[in-house]
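As described in the Methods, two query proteins were run sequentially through the folding procedure within a single session, without resetting any intermediate state between them. The first query and its resulting structure tokens are shown here.
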Amino acid sequence: MDPTLGEMARVFGRIGVLSFGGPAGQIALMHRELVEDRDWLEEDRFLHALNFCMLLPGPEAMQLATYSGWLLRGVTGGLLAGLLFVLPGFVVIMALSAVYFHLGELPVVAGILFGLKAAVLAIVVEALLKVSKRALKTPLAWGLAVAAFVAIAFLKLPFPLIVLGAGLVGIAVSLGRGTGTDAVQHKPAEETRLTGPTLRTVLVWGAIWLAPLALLIALPGVPQAFATMAGFFSTAAVVTFGGAYAVLAYVGQQAVEVHGWLMPGDMLAGLGLAETTPGPLILVLVFVGFLGGAREAGLDPALGGLLGGTVALFFTFAPCFLWIFAGAPHIERLRSVKWLSAGLAAITAAVVGVIANLAVWFGLHVLFGTVREAVAGPLSLPVPELATLNPMALVIALAAGVALLRFRLNLFVVLGGATLAGVAAIYLG
């Protein structure tokens, strides 16, 4: 018997509150709650849903929750599950963003943030190693990773262009090898039957996503910052293949260097705070929206931050519902298209290079007080001033790396130790 909406609300609310530890831990929690403990979903249906969500842009764990809810109670169930997965973390990250904005200069808060920033460097390196092992299995994958690193780190090419280019290369290679035509063949009647509902779903959820974007752009009196954020976070939602760590390089480049919403240290602090909250790590974009709204909207900072964070939440996650509700009926057909899988594999390989750039960017700004840009033709090279090296930041980052990679300690233990060390550094330094 399918669960009631009340039962789903209790279970998915519990999942949302307890969904710490990144996508692996979140997916394991959902598997235990939905497959093992309650037998709401069969093992193969859960795994098929997971495989589909791994193909999509955006946070795979949130989309898996949405898909699971859709399997149980249709669109209503999908909405309920997806929203309950992100709303607890949204409330927490909004509160932490307000503390950061208003109280970030207090010594104890500054010390906590200092320790978090240093630990984040180790966390990103760990993510880089994990993704590399999964994605870099062929010479083509290695070549795409190196090319992506050069493109974003030295040529400053935009992340969406890198994702598009890698996908096209993967598709071209697949078609050139003759492996792109093995898709399952469907009867015309089946295609006709599926096209109508799918088109309606795309139109409805496309309007839910894009109509507010158009209103923010067109309505007089709306602060320009919110319209810019809506477009920015919509773009980020479409190109977030490879998880939050991949898109953070794009967010950092745009939010810091182009829009001026953040300082380099802000992004590091935001990622550290997002690591301590339930829900998907991509909620760090809510932190970006809060600071951007507080600083640039021309409103009272509390109101501007609240609205900016809400804009970030909506335009980051609204597309996820479109992908799930439009794509779920076609899951088997999409999984069988070889050229599509090859394109997505190529994007994943390129994401490794993007995350490597993120690790370098974070490392330079965590460890050195001053980092300047040296331009040589089309290349832009970051050059740290060695005299501004922060020894304590280096010690905390190395200790966090050893704890995570060598001893495999729990993430919260590592973050707790890093914050204590950061507070000690502030008071004793």
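Immediately afterward, the second query was submitted; its sequence and tokens are:
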Amino acid sequence: MELFKYFIVLMFLCGIHLNGFAQITRAAILENIAQTGGVYYAYPVKEAIVTPAPKGYKPFYISHYARHGSRWIQSEQDYKTVVDIFEKAHRAGALTALGNDVRKRMAIVWEDAEGHGGDLTSLGVKQHREIAERMFQNYPEVFKGTPAMSARSTTVLRCVLSMDAFCERLKELNPALRIKREACAKYMKYMNYHTPEAVEFVSHQGIEEYRKFKENHTHPDRLITSLFSSSDYIRRNINLGELMWGLYWIASDMQNVEIGVDFYDIFEEDELFDLWQVCNYHNYVCDGPAPINGGIMVASAKSLLENILDSADEAIKSETNTATLRFGHDGNIIPLVALLQLGDMWKAETEPDKFYQTWCNFKVTPMAANIQMVFFRKKASDDIIVKFMHCEKEVAVPIETDITPFYHWKDVEIYYRNLLKKLP
């Protein structure tokens, strides 16, 4: 626990110095209502940032970790439960005009979603193809010739298909690429790993505080009475909070399926903002760098960071151009972002009502979120430099450099190796 405390203090002090704890406002979040989808926010980036490297330096290696692309809600039952509620109320004549309209929309959603719980959508495929294309175009030296590359995903199908979409686009751009693709239990110890302490925390600690926060931010009465015409029917048949949450998840996911259906009109901004805050709380505490978890969640990314460092050393020693491509989940990329201390996405906040001002899940891990470390070398020099990108945007790390946004690899490796020693 002393090591965890050290890490949290380090995060806090470095965050203040480097990032200024710039806060995001409620208005900024609601400016793009899709952001209230949180981890269901569809990948927003269409153009990567590419700062020219210092003179003489050429890219030769990319280390990458990405979340799967856009998907349907994890369980198809989450759709069916809501569909059944509206169909039952329709038969009872208990829907308002708006409620009946929502029922019709839900029928379209169910026709699309049935049998697809948790699956990658066509938009998810498109996202990874486009990210791969931008990577290829921006760093062509990495992909020239016939380099051997590694691609690994977790064993979850949406991650496997994300990997295939990414690799297939690269192969279309250079058919000579040799990309070994793997999805097996062997690599799950770092591709999708959570420490026993992290699992225990999520299961048994902090639950009561989260429950209170969720209860205090769930206000379903207005929404439910706008959909159902009979207060007696509501009292006898509807769990107000559960239905509101069911509708929220479906509304949030519509941006990922491209079927032309929307539900944001049935919510007020305050309702969406409150529900999103609950989800943001959960991700910040149960996956991210919230001080309340004592650094336990961030430590889950230790083995992944070790793999990143070791793989980079191997690539540098090989003196060839190559890439290491990894595909996983939001629960992996959130702690990795915090452990790498990227940008302003690892800041500390202890007040639940201020979590959103400090840390936003839709910024850290939208669908297809990715971390890219791009390595450069120069002829007749052993100085390797690297830059960090999050969702294809260059980000700073708390390491001294004279070539921003690039860093000397020798300094980067020392920093992270020392950081890892302080984790259990």
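The CA atoms of residues 60 and 321 lie 5 Å apart. We note this only descriptively and draw no conclusion about the first query from it.
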